[in-house]
């Protein structure tokens, strides 16, 4: 049971693969089937949904649950962790070199390490692969290998979690120019302190990167003020980049955060209006 993620859950797909190989029947129609199966699994990503899992476990003790939002101590058995379902999405690295206060990755996965290559994920037919690697640029030789595999096989890559712009170099951009990209190139502007390096690296991208659009995930509502969040969006607008607002689960329940997301996440409104004008237009139309 994938409790709260819209993205396919790799752990559950590994569990499915292991059970298939052992001749078991699989049923994804949860929670309808809870109590009618020999074993049941749930993955929870967001801590706000931990109570949902707890309620299910209270009714069905056979449910095995884990994930960053429920219990970081729960790990897949080695024989299941070793499964490599070729479903065109997944990880080639796990862990990260950073220790961002809002991120569970260092606690859950530790320091970055290589866990596979593109062909461990590819079914041999798909035209694109979605990578969930949290900081692939921290292993530059591995990044180049993955890009080389994609280039050789004509596969488009979706760096779904974004790339660490602090680790961007001219050589990185050369590879990004060579390969096919699905969803464009994405980075993160998670804190105001990153502004100088983002200005520096965007200038580098404008000089060497061949494609027009540059996207940034912008975390808001964690440990910044609204004014700081708006400033980061305006910096990206000045630089000709596209922000995508990621509201932390602790974001204050205020309408201005909703307006901010509506302004940024609809790219045409972000291009046409500044924030204040967008808010006036919104109020006049409602």
Q: Tell me, what is the CATH class of the largest domain?
A: Alpha Beta
**How many helices does DSSP assign?**
11
Shape: globular
The CATH architecture classification of the largest domain is: Alpha-Beta Barrel
User: Major sheet: size, sense and barrel closure?
Assistant: 4 strands, parallel
Strand runs, count:
11
CATH topology of the largest domain: TIM Barrel
| Category from helices, strands and their pairing | alpha/beta
Topology:
Blueprint: H1 10-21, E1 40-43, H2 50-59, E2 63-66, H3 78-81, E3 89-90, E4 93-94, H4 105-109, E5 113-114, E6 128-131, H5 140-153, E7 156-159, H6 170-178, E8 180-181, E9 185-188, H7 195-208, E10 214-220, H8 226-238, E11 242-247, H9 255-265, H10 267-272, H11 275-285
Parallel strand pairs: 1-2, 3-6, 6-7, 7-8, 9-10, 10-11
Antiparallel strand pairs: 4-5
Helix pairs in contact: 5-6
Commentary on this structure:
- Helix 5 (140-153) runs parallel beside helix 6.
- The model has no long low-confidence stretch (mean pLDDT 92).
- The chain is built from eleven helices and eleven strands.
- Helix 2 (50-59) links the parallel strand 1 and strand 2.
- The chain is globular.
- It has two domains: 1-85, no CATH class; 87-285, Alpha-Beta Barrel (TIM Barrel).
- The chain is of the alpha/beta class and 286 residues long.
- The strands form four sheets. Strands 3-6-7-8 form a four-stranded parallel sheet, with helices on one face. Strands 9-10-11 form a three-stranded parallel sheet.
């Amino acid at each position: 049971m994938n409790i709260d993620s819209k993205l396919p859950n790799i752990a559950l797909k590994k569990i499915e693969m292991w059970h298939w190989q052992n001749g078991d029947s699989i049923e994804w129609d949860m929670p309808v089937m809870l109590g009618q199966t020999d074993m049941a699994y749930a993955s929870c990503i967001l801590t706000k949904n931990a109570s949902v899992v707890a309620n299910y476990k209270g009714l069905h003790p056979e449910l095995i649950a884990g994930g960053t939002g429920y219990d970081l101590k729960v790990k897949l058995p080695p024989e299941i962790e070793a499964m490599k379902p070729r479903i065109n999405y997944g990880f080639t690295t796990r862990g990260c070199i950073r220790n961002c206060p809002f991120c569970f990755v260092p606690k859950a996965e530790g320091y970055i390490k290589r866990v596979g290559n593109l062909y461990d994920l590819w079914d041999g037919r798909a035209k694109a692969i979605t990578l969930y690697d949290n900081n692939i640029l921290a292993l530059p030789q591995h990044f180049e290998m993955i890009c080389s595999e994609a280039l050789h096989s004509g596969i488009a890559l979706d760096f779904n979690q974004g790339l660490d712009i602090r680790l961007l170099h001219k050589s990185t951009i050369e590879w990004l120019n060579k390969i096919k990209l699905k969803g464009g190139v994405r980075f993160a502007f998670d804190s105001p302190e990153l502004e100088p390096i983002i200005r520096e690296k965007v200038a580098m991208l404008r000089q060497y990167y061949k494609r027009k659009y540059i996207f940034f995930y912008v975390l808001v509502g964690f440990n910044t003020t609204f004014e700081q969040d708006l400033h980061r969006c305006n910096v990206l607008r000045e630089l000709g980049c596209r922000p995508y607002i990621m509201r932390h689960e602790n974001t204050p329940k205020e309408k201005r955060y909703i307006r901010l997301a509506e302004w940024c996440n609809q790219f045409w409104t972000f291009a046409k209006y500044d924030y204040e004008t967008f808010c006036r237009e919104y109020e006049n139309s409602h």
